[in-house]
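Example complex used in Figure S2.
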Amino acid sequence: MTALVPPAVSEPSRTTRGGSDPRRAHHRRLTPAVLFLAPSAIILGVFVIWPILQSLYFSLFDWTIGADSQKWVGAGNYIALTQDPRFWSALGTTLIFTSVTVVVVVTMGFLTALGLLQDHLLTRLFRSVYFFPTVVSLVSIGLVWKFLLDPSIGFVGGILKFFGAEPIAWLQSTQLALPAVIFVAIWKNIGFAMVIFVAGLKAVPAERYEAAHLDGATDRQVTWYVTLPSIRPTMLFATLILTIQSFQVFDLVYVMTGGGPLFVTDTLVNELYREGFVNFRTGYASAISWVLFAIIMIISALQLRLFRYNDVD
Amino acid sequence: MKIRSSLAIGAIAVAAALTLSGCSGGSSNTSSGPVNLTVWTGFTGGDRPGYTKIVKDFNESHPKIHVTMNVQPWDTIAQKLPSAWLTGQGPDIAAPSFDPGVIAQYVKTNSVLPLTNTGSGSTQINVDKLAPGTVKEFTYNGKLYAIPANFATLSLYYNKKAFAAAGIAAAPTTVAEFAEDAKKLTIDQGQTQYGLAVADNQTIQMWPILQWLKGGDIVNSKNCSVLDTAKGQESLKYWSDMVVKDKIAPVGLTGAEADSLFSAGKAAMEMNGPWAASGFKSAGIDLGIAPIPVATDGSKVTLGSTAPLAISAKTKHPTEAQEFLAYWSSKDAQRAFSLSTGFPPLRTDLADDPKLIADPTVSVFASQVGDARLYLPGVPSSTQVDANGYVPLIGQITRGDDVATATAAASKTIDALTGCTP
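Predicted assembly (735 residues):
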């Protein structure tokens, strides 16, 4: 303990020797910062930012991987998108998928969190059970549910049959395939929302509840006027993350239905994948990704505004 | 500080460079050791041991070349291969897809090597002995870009136990019998058992066979759709009516689902290739394999399927890679492959091979080689014709949509894709 290094604050005496000191001090502070940031900045730059910019460039061409020359089309891909019925139907499906999933997951996640807020053995157990699907990959979940929902050899069909009902071809039906996929997405995400809400609810100061109860507020009023406003940042976080995730849904749909039957579960990313990797139309696929990017940006901005993120407590 | 920071920046740069160069795989060789070749294929099915054996036998008989085969799902190959080959990072040899039409894309991007080591020698690719349809399919502008990795025909698998229970003595031999049996084998509107498991998506197409049996077709020689002609509509309606009204088959099955259904004993018949046999047998099905029934006009027809095996244009070892392809398609390798997998031989000079004729599985599939037709052979944008035209059409009519309306719409889509000029 005797060999303690003097703290950095004792340094200023030196700076008087070095001429234009503030700049140098600034430089000295900056260099290690840059060095610490550099590894992740390089990785991000090379593997994320550069490909993103490159895809914007591709989207202006009729780009085919490896072709001798790429034909410049300017906004051609974007114009073609507006005339592509499959794009509009994929956009519609994505919007339905996102709005239903986010609303249900946030509501159910909040209610589940309220119900499981107290710390008992049983509530802890239930929280783990609800959270479990979140840690499993979407591909595994998709495969398991696809098998469960199979009308001929699946578990769900077996149960229906046991009770004398006819098994339903969930994923082969044009009416039921999308609801079935949405159900699985909700089932997977409720645990995630619940955990976030439990954390948010626990952070609300007890005094607020006390004060409200002293003022004679009912339980419903407490939830509406105290709990909900207090967890606004949590609500924003959950909604934003889930919205972005839902807009980008791919694995679940790809594994469960491949976008079928008759394209009713075809989402934007599914369409992007098909154009880019099956039909090799890289330019067109890049244009789809930029439209998706723009939509997510706009909706995220609207959500931030809606939850008035800036004047949050 | 300055020296230190430039050292640190240098270290980061080196680390980054190492990270980046770590991505580069491909084949590397020392000057003294054998030439290493890598092969990517998607043969994950019951036929996989057959391909593994070709590689093993090749390595044993060619000490100067060592081939490593990497088997991964077709989807994965389709995602990785185009960019891997363009950047020179990919394997020396690959089967890019189970869809032969895909090779056109790789030719367009100059990713595949034209095969030059052809001729009649034992270390050459014996092009004139390969199934002629396949050679034509892989030839562009007079150059051969791939050999068939296999050549399969689809046969009729049937569950003997289900047939006996329905009082049917033998596999159907005519379309009328086929349809009648399918209805008879459908129990409880399919709730207990379907007559036929027929997949319509994510698979090698089975529906064209049904169409051909009734005299219909998909496109004509000018690549124009003939789905909406009288014959085309009639051939589709005949079968879709049986699916919609008689429930002989479930709707919207993928290839894997159709196989599961048959394996579970919940469907009595399925048209499929030789790769499915081992899975059905191990599922405990009392399996019968018969040729596809004879068409209404008395002709014999089935679907032929072939996967291309091509060499990267950027391989460092084109000679050795072509030697491997020559071995793969050689008489001995193909005889052994057929015997182990049940596939018909892809060489015409093995048609009369006594060992293959004596094999009960190979003989059924081989007997139909002469009658086999490829799916959309040489049709421009065939992958899209399938995905945007044919698959949705079958999906619609098996769900009860009007055949005339659906075929008209599909024809419009297909004609636009193929650039048909009637």
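The interface with chain A takes residues 1, 5, 8-9, 12, 15-16, 20, 78-79, 82-83, 85-86, 105, 108-111, 191, 194, 201-202, 250-254, 257, 260-261, 264, 266, 383-384, 387-388, 391-392, 395-396, 399 of chain B (CB under 8 Å). The radius of gyration of chain B is 24 Å.
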